[in-house]
Specification:
Order of helices and strands: EEEHEEHEEHEE
Shape: globular
Largest sheet: 9 strands, antiparallel
Strand content: 25-35%
Helix content: 10-25%
Distance between the termini: 40 Å
Number of helices: 3
Structural class: alpha+beta
Length: 164
């Protein structure tokens, strides 16, 4: 069974680095903290005003710092095209993520502070080498469930590219 992922257009590719253009997306979001994933899981499992089950998508998006600090799940296109059910819980919101261009680095391994820091460092160095002006805090994208072997996991770190 294939899991839906967001559409994007690759503008430039250089090994594990890409510049991508994403359309606007609807996301279910919760603040970072204990139980953050379970809050989103309850929402897609029917914990919403319509008691509607919503298919899981990938990746789960995590932002550790800044005003958008939290974890997000991209709402499937079919659900987003209709009325997205409001969450029952106050600690989950449905928001629009605006269209944007991102510099992206793809890597594998477990979600650890050290792996994230190393991946972010590589992305920042590549963006600087390419004279890409980035802005805002990094977003980490995790595509696989926790039981996936670390070397088989697809993870990404993304930095928004400033518009000229």
């Amino acid at each position: 069974m294939a899991i839906e992922t967001p559409d994007y257009k690759v503008l430039e590719q250089d090994g594990k680095f890409e510049v991508r253009e994403y359309p606007a997306m609807t996301v279910a979001r919760t603040a970072m903290g204990d139980g953050d994933f379970m809050r989103l899981f309850r929402y897609i499992s029917g914990g919403n005003e319509a008691e509607q089950k919503i298919a899981m998508t990938a990746p789960v998006l995590v932002q550790h710092k800044g005003e958008d600090r939290g974890m997000s799940f991209v709402v499937p296109r079919e659900v987003a095209a209709k009325k997205v059910p409001a969450p029952e819980a106050d600690d989950v919101s449905v928001d629009e993520m605006p269209a944007a261009k991102f510099a992206v680095f793809t890597y594998s391994g477990r979600r650890t502070d050290a792996n994230e820091a190393e991946a972010l460092s590589k992305l920042r160095a590549w963006a600087e080498k390419k004279n890409l002006k980035t802005q805002g805090e990094p977003v980490f994208a995790y595509y696989d469930p926790p039981w996936t072997l670390p070397f088989m996991r697809r993870n990404e770190v993304m930095l928004r590219v400033a518009q000229d």
